[in-house]
Amino acid sequence: MKLFKAIHIRKKHVFIALAAVACVGVCTCLVPPAATRVSNFVSAKTERKLPIYCVETDKPQVSISFDAAWGADDTDELLRILAENDVKATFFLCGYWVKDYPEEVKKIAEAGHDLGNHSSTHPHMNQLTSEQISKELADCHNAVKDLTGLEMDLFRPPFGEYNNTVIETSFANSYYPIQWNVDSLDWKELGADHEINQVLNHKHLSNGTIILFHNDAKYTPEVLDTIIKGLKEKGYEIVPISQLIYRDNFELDNEGRQKPSASAT
């Protein structure tokens, strides 16, 4: 597990950089209801398709998310802190993590947090065919559904890696692809003070922000309470991603910011 974590951190750092570069293009997407969104999903200005990095909203709302691909030792502590602060978050779960830690998955679900899909085996999605991506999504989806009875429709690609096939296949499987625009950098283990400052003073922290944490990062249990209270002191309400995003008739700007489509306003 330690070896995997080390590899995960190194590779994630690379692909976060690639994901940031990918946002240079401009992408506008109109997304109808789930039953028809695939056939009508279009890119008006470019072929480059983007996931949802953040949301344009007048509401002072942000979302906290955790990627669960490592251990589970901190799960109870994270859930305790979230409960004490009356906050619901979004947990993106890998299929193998679900199978290794079923009781933790049940606790997360029973606490009322979002459950999101983080693939079955944590592969580099850019290297997969649409059929392989669909299988990754389905295997994780079914593992969670069999365990909790819950359906998922939020997907975060491993390593922050995506291409057009990943985005299109996500929608084809009734999933909204989700990225982030504030990275806590907890996976770098740079210290508690650095992590607090990284989130609370991030230049992109604003209405509609999606914040990235990990479920088994060294300093996150220590700083989570401070960060939550700091966000609230700044006037933000913390909501799960399922409550932050638009479900229908939206478009994405060149930064991956989701907003209502022009035709819907």
Main β sheet profile: 6 strands, parallel
Number of domains: 1
CATH superfamily: Glycoside hydrolase/deacetylase
Global Rg: 17 Å
Task: Based on the coordinates given, report the CATH architecture.
Answer: Alpha-Beta Barrel
Q: What is the averaged pLDDT score? A: 87
Gross morphology is globular
| Structure classification | alpha/beta
CATH topology: TIM Barrel
Q: Roughly how many Å apart are the termini?
A: 49 Å
Please state roughly what percent of the residues sit in beta strands, choosing from under 5%, 5-15%, 15-25%, 25-35%, 35-45% or over 45%.
5-15%
Report the helical percentage: 25-40%
**Level-1 CATH class name:** Alpha Beta
Task: Please explain how this structure is put together.
The protein has 265 residues and is an alpha/beta fold. It has a single domain (53-244), classed as Glycoside hydrolase/deacetylase (TIM Barrel, Alpha-Beta Barrel). It is 40% helix and 14% strand. It has helices spanning 2-22, 37-40, 75-84, 95-100, 102-110, 130-148, 164-172, 192-200, 220-233, 241-244; strands at residues 54-55, 61-68, 90-93, 114-117, 154-155, 176-177, 182-183, 210-214, 237-238, 250-252, 257-260. The strands form 3 sheets. Strands 2, 3, 4, 7, 8 and 9 form a 6-stranded parallel sheet that branches. A 3-stranded mixed sheet has the order 1-11-10, with no helix packed on it. The protein has a two-stranded parallel sheet with strand order 5-6. Helix 3 packs parallel to helix 9 (220-233), helix 6 (130-148) crosses helix 7 and helix 8 (192-200) packs parallel to helix 9. The protein is globular and about 40 Å long. The model is unreliable at 1-46 (pLDDT under 50).
